[in-house]
Amino acid sequence: MRTLRIAMAQINPTVGDLAGNTRLIKAWIKEARKAKADLVAFPELAITGYPPEDLLLKPRFVADNRRALDEIAKDCKGLVAVIGYVGQGAGGGGKLQPPGVVAAGQYELTNAAAIVAERRILASYHKWLLPNYGVFDESRYFHPGRRVPLVTLRGVTIAVNICEDIWFPDGPIRLQAAAEAEVIVNINASPFQIGKSRMREQMLATRARENGVILTYTNTVGGQDELVFDGNSVILDQTGEVIARGKAFDEDLIIADLTVDAVTRNRMAHGRKKRFTVAMAEAVERVAVATAKAPVKRQRVVPQLEAPLGELEEVYRALVVGVRDYVQKNGFKKVVIGLSGGVDSALTAVIAVDALGPKNVMGIFMPSPYTSSESGEDVADLTRRLTIDYRTIPITPTFQSYRDALAEEFAGKPVDTTEENLQARIRGNILMAFSNKFGHLVLTTGNKSEMSVGYATLYGDMAGGFAVIKDVPKTMVYDLSRLRNAEGAAPVIPKRILDRAPTAELRPNQKDEDSLPPYAVLDPILKAYVEEDRSLEEIVARGCDRATVAKVMAMVDRSEYKRRQAPIGIKITLRAFGKDRRMPITNGYRNV
Predict the structure, then answer these.
(1) Cβ 35 vs Cβ 275: under 8 Å
(2) Domain presence at residue 421
(3) Which of 52, 341, 388, 442 qualifies as a cystine partner to 48, CB 3.0-4.6 A?
(4) Which one from 108, 127, 527, 544 is the annotated catalytic residue?
(5) Any idea what DSSP says for residue 306?
(6) Nearest to residue 56, comparing CAs of 88, 25, 82?
């Protein structure tokens, strides 16, 4: 019986940290060797981290990445390793010239996977299908590959492909299966968004089943700027059944013994035709891995099969990982948050504590003339439950000094949003002063609903270094808060914070609904317009009030200049502001 023991190293690399990533990969190769694995797979661009963006335009960076691969190869003995790196050359694809800087530049790059064994690089696979949508810009940097190395290891035929290659039925997997590949090793840097892990498994099951192959899917994990990678690496057999699944949002080594003879039996039972053409044969490069000795004796492992997380739990974990890695990978130790007594700042503080620990989180409460006593009580209650340090710095004297300084210029003018924004900007100044003096990173607390319609103040509540819930709609803020309150021995967010009507408290008796539709009405409109690009007529057809939809759409369009100046935040929805949604600020078109 032919069996293959595979290990999937679900690691958390740091973009640009070639030395650190090299140490990480070498350490996991050692663990895979201890587990007596025949092959260990690492994620896409594991050596450079993903996405390396314009680091790829630096020739020295590319050369250093290749030197790192050579160094890793020296440690690769007794097993085969598949390692993501930046390759050079068009991968056998001829003189293809995709658009972008590289096509007109000095050298051609590929998104590559090295197949390494016995301390040398046997072959490289170059990614065929380069995503160029949403957060992806791969055609800006890479050329597509057009060759397929097939590796024979212990009598098993193995093929490698990379991320996007597996998403399309007519991608390289069809050629690989026709060339009699029995195991497909797919390596990935697939960012998290709501519902993606379930959709991904369904797609992988279809690919495995329609090609009659065992499919291994190794994903990276961790945070990189606004992106979070969820792991959830998985192995599916030739029928599409999941036989192993790794952890979500944590590093992991997933090991499974693959019964490869079942692939042959399945193909015979279904009468699969090879459909292998001459053109296909020209693209295939066959590589045999010589085994110096007979397969080691080993007990069969019981495959790891982690249970999938619920949708809200996935989102919460993504936010925690995103904060942790952004703070730590950028060299910060502590964060500071403006606490208002509202649900947004409360949830942000809880996420920060879960990510960094209470000793590394500071809250600052900055009451104004319009701040209620309930807000102060709720902030004190929240910080007590979280056991974080917090300070109270009233802004009333500073606010009055601003009003006095502007009194002559503003004489005869009614009080309006100018005075409201002054309060927000005073608070922003105080938070940034703490950041400058003590080196803490300021976490902003605005949610996606507010950012969409511009219900935020430039240089005020938008001032900071990282926007934790920037892509979380207000209604989901409440859902996540209740989810977190249900964990542990006692709720961490006081009940009154969840029950009070949302308010900025920048004028007497202010409520969010004075300026905005109720969030239960607003959020579905925003999802349709911002994430799905629906027109006014299409949104109205869903049962929404025409005047309300038109107002919301206009607010979204007018607020692009604010969002362009906002700090980056964690992507969790289908279409986040920033890399996902790139609208011109000067824009005369209206989607009505």
Answers:
(1) no
(2) yes
(3) 52
(4) 127
(5) P
(6) 88
The catalytically annotated residue of 76, 108, 163, 201 is 163
The answer to whether the beta carbons of residues 206 and 309 sit under 8 Å apart is no
CATH number, domain with residue 359: 3.40.50.620
Both 324 and 378 in one domain: the answer is yes
- Residue 436 shares a structural domain with residue 554: yes
Both 416 and 360 in one domain: the answer is: yes
Tens of pLDDT, residue by residue over 349-390, are: 999 999 999 999 999 999 999 999 999 999 999 999 999 999
The tens digit of pLDDT for each residue in 431-449 reads 999 999 999 999 999 999 9
First to last CA, the chain: 64
Cα–Cα dist 433/418, whole Å: 22
Q: What is the DSSP string of 101-153?
A: TGGGSS--EEEEEEEEETTEEEEEEE-S----STT--HHHHBPPP--EEEEEE
One-character DSSP codes across 392-429: E---HHHHHHHHHHHTTTTTTPPP-HHHHHHHHHHHHH
pTM over 0.70: yes
284 with 147, same domain: the answer is yes
Residue 486 is part of which domain span? Answer: 311-564
The structural domain count of the chain equals 2
Name residues whose C-beta falls within 8 Å of residue 160's C-beta, 6 or more positions apart in sequence: 82, 113, 115, 125, 149, 151, 184, 185, 186, 187
Query: Do 342 and 281 fall within a single domain?
Result: no
Report the pLDDT value the prediction gives residue 505, as an integer from 0 to 100. Answer: 86
* 406 CB-near residues (< 8 Å, 6+ apart): none
Are 268 and 350 part of one and the same domain?
no
- If you search the block for the tokens 């007519």, which residue do you land on? 170
127 is catalytic: yes
Q: What is the pLDDT of residue 100?
A: 41
One domain, residues 319 and 373: yes
Q: Does one domain contain both 283 and 397?
A: no
Spell out the long-range contacts of 518-525 with Cβ–Cβ below 8 A and sequence spacing 24 or more.
519/449, 519/473, 519/474, 519/475, 520/475, 521/548, 522/449, 522/453, 522/474, 522/552, 523/449, 523/473, 523/474, 523/475, 523/476, 525/549, 525/552, 525/553
Torsion sign over Cα 14, 20, 26, 27 = negative
Q: What is the dihedral of CA 107, 109, 115, 120, to 10 degrees?
A: 20
**pLDDT < 50 regions, the chain:** 92-105, 292
Inter-helix orientation angle 474-485/343-356, to 10°: 50
CA 486, CA 498: separation in Å to the nearest integer?
Answer: 13
Residue ending a domain, choose from 288, 321, 354: 288
325: three-class secondary structure by DSSP: helix
Active site residue 163: yes
Q: Judge contact between 491 and 485, C-beta under 8 A.
A: yes
Q: At residue 379, what are phi and psi to the nearest 5 degrees?
A: -65, -45
Tell me the residue type at 5.
Answer: R
CB atoms within 10 A of CB 436: 10
466-467 β-sheet, strand order: 389-392, 361-365, 335-339, 441-444, 466-467
Token look-up 């299908």 returns: 129
Looking up residue 237, the CATH number of its domain turns out to be 3.60.110.10
